[in-house]
Task: inverse folding
C-alpha cells in the first residue's frame, strides 16, 4: 500500500449530511460525521503542529508533566472531557476552560476513521497531532478513541469485500495510528460498541464491516494488534446502555460480561471496560443490576472507566435551577452506584460545556430552551453537575 500523508490544512472535505433515524446510536454516528466534516482550516497555521517534521510512524515523545491515567491510590479520580480541536483554536475561552478543569482529554472525532482516513491510501494526522500538542503543552493526558467501531467510517470501507482485505485494513490502520502515538496516548478505546442493541448472547454483534468480514475475531485481532503496536498501552472495550432498568439493558449487561469472560479465557489482552454513561433522564438507573455487573467486572480483574458521561435533559422541566439540580441528581445516582463497588480509573464527560454538545442536534427541547447536559454552562460557569462529579472523584470505593 502506498501511504500518502497530507498536511494541507486549507483543504476542506465535502459536506456530509446526516440521515435521520430512530436509533440513538445511529444518531450519534451521524453526529460524528457532522463533527468530522468541519476542518480547522487555515487558522491552524497559527498553531503549527510540532509533528509535521517527524516521519509519520515515528513514536511521539510522551508528555512529561501529564498525570497518569491510573488514579493514584488515595488521590482524586482524574477528570477529563471530549475535546474539539477546531474550538481549541477558534475559542480561547473554551481552551482556557479545558486547561483549568481537566486532567485528561479525549478527541471527539479526530482519531476516528472518518477523520484519519478520507481515502484508502491517505492518513491525515494534523488535527490529532494538534490535540497531542495541546495536551503536552498544558500537562494533560490524552486518551485514544477509537480503533474498531461500526460507525464514523469513510465510504471507501464499504468496498472491503473479503476477510483477508478486512484484516489487512484493520491491522494496518491500528499499527499505523497506535505506533505513531506510542508513548503519547497511554489508553485506547480499542473496541467501541460491539454489541447489538438487544443481544441474545455474547456473540450478538452489531452489524459492521468488521463483524461481516471477520466475525467475532475482529475483537481479538484489534486488541492483539494494538497491544503489539504499543505494549504499554491500556486497552479498553467501550460500551453504552449498561446502567438502566429493563430487559434490554439486563441483556446487554449479561452479554457484555460473557464477551469479556470469553476474551479473558482466550488470553486476549484487555485491561478495562469503559461505561459511556449517556444518561437519559426518562430512564431509571438499575442500581442492583449495575452493581452486580460491576462486581463481575472486578472479578474478571478488569478496571472500569466512565468515558462519555452527560445527561440528556430534553424531557426535563424548563426552569434552569430545577433542571440543573435534576441533572446533577441523576448523575449522582449513577456515580453513587458505581463508586460503591469500584473506583473508576477516570471520569470523562462527552464535552465540557453546554456551548459545544452533540445533544441538541438530536434531542432539542420543545420549549426552545438550550440543552444543559454538561458540567459547565454555555458561559463556562460550573453547574451542580460539576460539583456532583467532583464529589465522587474524591470518594473512595
Result:
Amino acid at each position: 500500500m502506498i501511504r500518502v500523508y497530507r498536511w494541507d490544512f486549507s483543504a476542506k472535505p465535502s459536506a456530509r449530511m446526516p440521515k435521520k433515524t430512530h436509533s440513538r446510536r445511529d444518531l450519534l454516528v451521524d453526529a460524528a460525521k457532522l463533527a468530522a466534516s468541519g476542518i480547522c482550516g487555515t487558522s491552524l497555521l497559527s498553531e503549527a503542529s510540532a509533528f509535521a517534521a517527524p516521519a509519520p510512524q515515528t513514536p511521539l515523545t510522551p508528555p512529561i508533566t501529564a498525570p497518569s491515567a491510573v488514579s493514584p491510590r488515595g488521590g482524586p479520580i482524574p477528570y477529563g472531557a471530549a475535546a474539539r480541536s477546531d474550538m481549541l483554536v477558534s475559542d480561547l475561552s473554551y481552551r482556557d476552560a479545558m486547561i483549568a478543569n481537566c486532567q485528561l482529554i479525549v478527541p471527539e472525532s479526530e482519531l476516528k476513521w472518518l477523520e484519519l482516513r478520507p481515502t484508502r491510501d491517505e492518513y491525515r494526522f494534523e488535527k490529532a497531532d494538534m490535540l497531542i500538542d495541546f495536551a503536552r503543552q498544558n500537562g494533560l493526558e490524552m486518551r485514544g478513541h477509537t480503533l474498531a467501531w461500526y460507525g464514523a467510517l469513510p465510504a471507501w470501507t464499504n468496498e472491503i469485500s473479503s476477510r483477508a482485505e478486512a484484516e489487512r485494513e484493520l491491522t494496518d490502520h491500528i499499527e499505523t495510528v497506535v505506533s505513531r502515538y506510542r508513548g503519547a496516548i497511554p489508553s485506547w478505546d480499542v473496541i467501541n460498541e460491539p454489541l447489538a442493541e438487544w443481544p441474545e448472547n455474547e456473540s450478538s454483534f452489531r452489524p459492521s464491516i468488521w463483524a461481516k468480514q471477520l466475525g467475532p475475531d475482529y475483537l481479538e485481532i484489534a486488541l492483539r494488534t494494538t497491544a503489539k503496536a504499543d505494549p504499554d498501552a491500556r486497552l479498553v472495550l467501550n460500551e453504552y446502555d449498561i446502567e438502566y432498568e429493563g430487559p434490554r439493558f439486563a441483556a446487554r449487561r449479561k452479554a457484555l460480561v460473557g464477551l469479556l469472560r470469553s476474551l479473558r479465557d482466550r488470553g486476549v489482552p484487555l485491561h478495562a471496560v469503559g461505561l459511556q454513561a449517556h444518561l437519559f433522564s426518562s430512564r431509571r438507573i438499575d442500581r442492583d443490576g449495575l452493581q452486580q455487573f460491576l462486581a463481575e467486572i472486578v472479578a474478571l480483574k478488569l478496571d472500569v472507566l466512565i468515558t462519555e458521561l452527560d445527561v440528556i435533559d430534553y424531557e426535563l422541566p424548563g426552569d434552569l435551577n430545577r433542571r440543573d439540580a435534576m441533572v446533577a441528581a441523576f448523575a449522582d445516582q449513577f456515580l453513587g452506584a458505581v463508586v460503591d463497588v469500584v473506583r473508576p480509573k477516570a471520569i470523562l464527560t462527552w464535552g465540557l460545556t453546554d456551548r459545544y454538545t452533540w445533544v441538541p442536534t438530536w434531542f432539542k427541547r420543545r420549549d426552545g430552551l438550550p440543552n444543559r447536559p454538561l458540567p459547565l454552562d454555555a458561559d463556562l460557569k460550573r453547574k451542580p453537575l460539576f460539583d456532583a462529579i467532583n464529589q465522587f472523584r474524591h470518594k473512595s470505593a
